[in-house]
Amino acid sequence: MSRRRGTAVAFALLMAALAAAGCGLGPGADVGSVELTVTREFGHEAVLQRSLKAKESDTVMRALEANADIETRFGGGFVHSIDGVAESERGGDPYDWFFFVDGVESPVGAADVELKGDERVWWDYRDWSAANHVPAVVGSWPAPFTDGVAGRPHPVVLECSGDGSACETARDALGREGVTLATGSPQGAIRMLVGTWDRLREDPAAQLLEDGPGESGIYAKFDGFGLVALDENGSSARRFGPEAGLVAATSRYGGPPVWLVTGGTVAAVREAAEALDAAHLRDHYAVAIAGGREMPLPVAAR
Known about the structure:
CATH topology of the largest domain: Chitobiase, domain 2
Order of helices and strands: HEEHEEEEEEEEHEHHEEEEEHHEE
Distance between the termini: 67 Å
Low-confidence stretches: 1-25
Number of helices: 7
Radius of gyration: 21 Å
Shape: globular
């Protein structure tokens, strides 16, 4: 074999190895950029933040293994560890890696989720003793409103009850992100509900909040005195009272995400609506808003 031919073969083998390793060199055309985020403890600890160029052949697993040291299980379809942090039990509580695509928890393994471009992929290592399923989060704002879920467009509906100023604030926040609102109640719509809790709780999706994080995925509740923040064990951790607002997301029966912009009073709802931006929401599962400042939820257990 000539030296030139040998060099060409070696180069080809190197390219194949890099492609197999998920370095974005696989076959297919570019589909766009993908935002990859890795955190721990419900987003409280940042691990990795990257903007990637994805190709037609890329998956969520491929994007992760190209940027982190991972171990997989179940035939390579599920992540067991990232950068040495593995599925485990701590103090009797189970910990594992979960991931969201455009703010929605994936129902399938990372190797089965193809990237179509413009996704926000978020991996988080957390305690799942209180909720082994968190259907939706707010921390990938402005997703899922801008591009739908996992590359599939969905109509967006804003449903307001009560105070008009909070509704307009929410409408403006969506408009700044280029979101066009649908009219009526189209099937498969991503919904944003804006109003005081005594009004929103009549909605079947919003009612999940009253069943705890195991049902809603939201680490908060309302009682007769207002908003109560929960810790990762699902226990009451901080009482805010009626003047605090809440921005959270959930899903009913695996349907499109439903966002709750609410509070105990009209003023609290306004504060929650004013928090609809990346500065307040990014990498948070949900947020409580009090005095113009956000508290990520769940609250860390003492």
